[in-house]
Amino acid sequence: MVLLKGVDKGGFVWYTNYESRKGHELSENPHAALLFYWDGLNRQVRVEGSVQKVSEEESEQYFHSRPRGSQIGAIVSKQSTVVPGRHVLHQQYKELEEKYSKEGLIPKPKHWGGYRLQPNRFEFWQGQTSRLHDRLEYFPQEIDGKRVWKIVRLAP
Ligand SMILES: Cc1cc2nc3c(=O)[nH]c(=O)nc-3n(C[C@H](O)[C@H](O)[C@H](O)COP(=O)(O)O)c2cc1C
């Protein structure tokens, strides 16, 4: 689970550590599916597409908009690697907190930043009591040189 930080014309954006497990997986295979699920509404939206890193500037801007504690946490955490114990993280956090105790910019680690998924398939799923659930698939098609979203109904 990650925080969906933004949606714009370019796609869906989230931030993480590029050297995390998912970071390595995305560098091998830059395609992903995002899943949004609302239990109470019996509803799910699945978005598939290709993934690219956002620009350094965009990552810098977001990194520095976060609370200073979160910025330090991002430096401390070598995400997805084995840690001998919580004390190690706390110790490193304390050291960096002291180092950056004065006002001033905390440098964003090179390996921390955003990804943007450019969608090429959406599936809207709405549960029905009959179990004949609705599944509407949207995918792009070229028609007369224009890219339009084609919609089909899939069997549940
Ligand atoms: C509610 C929630 C929000 C999270 N948001 C993020 C996030 O925005 N970015 C992130 O890197 N990890 C986030 N995490 C942690 C990830 O789920 C995951 O543990 C971490 O990214 C390491 O994943 P990996 O080892 O598969 O790469 C969040 C976890 C939860 C429960």
From TrEMBL:
Q: Which keywords, in A-to-Z order, does the entry hold?
A: Flavoprotein, FMN, Oxidoreductase
Keyword Magnesium set for record: no
Q: Which residues form the Pyridoxine 5'-phosphate oxidase dimerisation C-terminal domain?
A: 112-156
Which species does the entry assign this protein to? Answer: Hibiscus sabdariffa
Uppermost EC category: oxidoreductase
**Which superkingdom is the protein from?**
Eukaryota
SUPFAM superfamilies named in the record: FMN-binding split barrel
Q: What is the lineage of its organism?
A: Eukaryota, Viridiplantae, Streptophyta, Embryophyta, Tracheophyta
- Pathway(s) served: Cofactor metabolism; pyridoxal 5'-phosphate salvage; pyridoxal 5'-phosphate from pyridoxine 5'-phosphate: step 1/1; Cofactor metabolism; pyridoxal 5'-phosphate salvage; pyridoxal 5'-phosphate from pyridoxamine 5'-phosphate: step 1/1
Which cofactors must be present for this protein to function?
FMN
Q: Which Enzyme Commission number(s) are listed? A: 1.4.3.5
What protein am I looking at?
pyridoxal 5'-phosphate synthase
Name all Pyridoxamine 5'-phosphate oxidase N-terminal domain ranges: 8-98
